[in-house]
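Hi C.,

You asked whether I'd gotten around to modeling the 110-residue construct. I have! Everything is below, sequence then structure, no commentary in between.
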Amino acid sequence: MAAGEYDDEDDFDAKALAAASDMQERLEELQSDYQRCFNTPAGEKVLLSLYDFCRQMKTTFISPDADPNGRYMTLLEGRRSVILEILKYLTIDDREIIERMRDAARKASL
């Protein structure tokens, strides 16, 4: 029998199930790490800065006249994908982020 082949379907199922379980455990640990990182006062400031820089609430469309090759728009989409990935792990919706941004602006104006 060649390497990687299974002599029994049950053996394959058991290994696939173990791999899926391991992946789920790693994802849960990663989500916990994101939450510990961003659910602090400093992490919240960084998140709000990234939220603006990554254009979460802004369009990434740039007129072809201003960006004929589409490179700048591609850059903006890349930025936006970063904040979307972070928010996926934090399970924060846009309304909560907007409220945090308003609170930060109020505090800054005092």
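If it helps when you're writing up: Residues 42 and 58 are 24 Å apart (CA to CA).

Thanks,
B.
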